[in-house]
Amino acid sequence: MDVNFLNLLLTVILAVSFNTEALSPHYYDHTCPNVDQIVTIAVKQAMSNDKTVPAALLRMHFHDCFVRGCDASVLLDSKGKNKAEKDGPPNISLHAFYVIDNAKKALEEQCPGVVSCADIVSLAARDAVALSGGPTWKVPKGRKDGRVSKAIETRQLPAPTFNISQLRQSFGQRGLSMHDLVVLSGGHTLGFAHCSSFQNRIHNFNTQKQVDPTLNPSFAASLKGICPAHNKAKNAGATMDASTTAFDNMYYKMLIQGQSLFSSDQALLTTPSTKKLVAKYASSMEEYERAFVKSMIKMSSISGNGNEVRLNCRRVR
Question: Which of 23, 146, 216, 238 could form a disulfide with 258 if both were Cys (CB 3.0 to 4.6 A apart)?
Answer without folding.
Answer: 216
